[in-house]
Every structure is written in structure tokens, then in C-alpha cells.
Specification:
Elements lengths: L12 H24 L5 H24 L7 H28 L2 H8 L2 H13 L5 H19 L11 H23 L5 H21 L7 H4 L3 H29 L1 H5 L4 H14 L5 H17 L9
Length: 307
């Protein structure tokens, strides 16, 4: 019954495969969202992506369960907190933080998510921060640094308000993940994902509707191709990706699940080179090797179960 008792077990190969697929989707999503920013403002874009994701999740819930899940008042309140942290606050902080900071700083700060998640898991659930896990965190972070700083002219600018907002978006998502791990003991990942993103999307839509810029038809329907990207981002990257994410948290916990986030900036750079024509160097090969090693170390069991 106790999920934390399964922490020493090695990460199943099926979980690793699904998580890598989610990281590929999120990596492609970086290029998709970058292209979409030319057609949508940041807040309406976030609300549209989340709305599409909610439609997809609702269809899956109704198909799999044949009806809406029955939830208690305390469960709804807990998922509302997760929705505020993982959807609403995360999207707002990330969008506005990236407007004020640089892409280099943003990618590096996002790479801190596994470390923040591991620290949160250690504080809340008592999961051990073993030397092997810490080495995996350090190695993965080094790979991300190599990938990001390999671009010509990439430098670390001075810290500012944007960097602080990006860091807070990482913390917000990690704290929400702790709540998901608690709820996973009572609910299935599909129900959690659906309710969390439904509530978070409602928050974003209300914010966008009450924002200073009124939403008109020209803003919401700039053309066919942008909406193809919105559908991919909402259905594949957001809905499917977060279903995999929450399922993995319920199986292996937030700390080991978060280590896979190191693949997001690496895949993001790779697809940017493939789709946007950016140049790859030997530093990217080093980054891939370091991220792979860090993921392997970070997802190994803390200790072997006694015979």
C-alpha cells in the first residue's frame, strides 16, 4: 500500500521508455511554442494550449472510465492546490520570466528542476539523497550546461527579476509534484491529470479574459498552421506528456521522475537544430553523454533490498 516502500526498486524499463517519449514530446514542444509566440501573446497562448489539453484529457477520461471520477472535498482542494502550482503559477511565471530573461538562463534554470524535486522529496517524504543520486544530478546538470553554452555568443547574464521568476516556476512545479505523489496513493494518474489541468486551465482562461488586452478573433485565430501547432502542443506535449509524467510519479516518485527532465533541453536543442537549422557541435555530444549518465545514476535504487 505504501508507495514510498517501493523507492529502493530499480526504475522499470517501461517507465523509462515512456518518460523518454514524454521528454521527446516536450523537446519538440520547445520549437513549437517558439514558433507560436510569433502568432499569439504569451498568456492567451498558455490558456489555449491548456484548453486543448483539457479537451483531450476529458475525452480519455470519459472513454476509459465511462463517466466523471468521484472525488471528495479534500481531494478536490488538494488538486486545486496542485493546479495552481503546476499549471497556473508555473505557466504565468515561466511566460513572464522568459520575456525578461534570456533563453540561456531559462534553460539552465529549468535544468535545476530535478535537484529541486529531489530536495522536496527528501524534505517531505524522507527519500535519501545518496552520493550516487547527487552525482547523477551534478552530471546531468553539467551536460545541460554544456549543451546550452555551446551556442556561439551564449553567456550567463546578470541575475534579475526574470531569472527569479523562472526559478520560482521550477519551484512551483516541483512543489506541485509533491502533492501529486501524495494524491497518487488515493487516485489514478488519469483522474489526477484531468482534474488538475481542468482547474488550472480555468484559472488561466479567467486571467486571460480579464487581462489588459481583450481577446478578439484575430488574436485567437491567426491562421491554420499556428492552430496545428497548438493542437500538437496541447494534445501530444501537454495532455499525453503530463499523463506519462503523473503516472511515473505514482510508480517511482517525484525525485527519480524529475531526473528525466534533463532530457528536455537536450532534445529541445536537437530539434531546434533539425527544425530551425541551428548548428550542433561536439559539446552537444558531450551533453547527451552526460545527461544519459546522470539519468542512469539518478534513477538507480538508493539501496538493494535485502534477500
Amino acid at each position: 500500500m505504501n508507495r514510498s516502500a517501493a523507492a529502493p526498486v530499480a526504475t522499470p524499463a517501461s517507465v523509462q521508455g515512456w518518460m523518454l517519449l514524454a521528454m521527446v514530446l516536450w523537446g519538440v514542444n520547445v520549437s513549437a511554442v517558439k514558433a507560436l509566440t510569433a502568432s499569439f501573446e504569451a498568456l492567451p497562448l498558455a490558456a489555449l494550449r491548456m484548453a486543448v489539453a483539457c479537451v483531450a484529457l476529458s475525452a480519455v477520461v470519459l472513454w476509459r472510465r465511462g463517466g466523471l471520477p468521484l472525488l471528495g472535498a479534500r481531494q478536490l482542494a488538494a488538486m486545486a492546490g496542485c493546479a495552481f502550482l503546476m499549471v497556473y503559477a508555473n505557466q504565468i511565471l515561466f511566460a513572464h520570466g522568459l520575456q525578461r530573461s534570456t533563453a540561456t538562463n531559462g534553460a539552465l534554470i529549468m535544468a535545476l528542476s530535478p535537484l529541486v524535486s529531489a530536495l522536496m522529496a527528501a524534505l517531505v517524504f524522507g527519500e535519501p539523497l545518496t552520493p550516487r543520486r547527487l552525482l547523477g544530478v551534478a552530471l546531468g546538470f553539467a551536460g545541460v550546461v554544456a549543451v546550452v553554452l555551446s551556442h556561439p555568443g551564449a553567456t550567463l547574464s546578470h541575475a534579475g527579476l526574470g531569472d527569479l521568476m523562472l526559478a520560482l516556476s521550477v519551484i512551483s512545479f516541483a512543489v506541485g509534484g509533491v502533492g501529486v505523489q501524495r494524491l497518487a496513493r488515493q487516485l489514478d494518474p488519469l483522474s489526477m491529470s484531468w482534474v488538475i489541468y481542468l482547474i488550472g486551465t480555468a484559472m488561466l482562461i479567467v486571467h486571460a479574459a480579464l487581462g489588459p488586452s481583450p481577446l478578439g478573433a484575430a488574436q485567437l485565430f491567426p491562421g491554420a498552421w499556428p492552430w496545428v501547432l497548438v493542437l500538437f502542443s496541447g494534445v501530444a506535449a501537454t495532455a499525453a506528456g503530463n499523463l506519462i509524467w503523473n503516472r511515473s510519479i505514482s510508480v517511482i516518485g517525484i525525485a527519480r521522475t524529475a531526473v528525466f527532465l534533463y532530457w528536455v533541453p537536450v532534445f529541445g536543442v536537437g530539434f531546434a537544430a533539425l527544425l530551425l537549422g541551428e548548428t550542433l557541435t561536439v559539446w552537444h555530444l558531450f551533453g547527451f553523454a552526460a545527461v544519459m549518465g546522470g539519468t542512469w545514476l539518478g534513477t538507480r535504487p538508493a539501496n538493494k533490498p535485502s534477500s
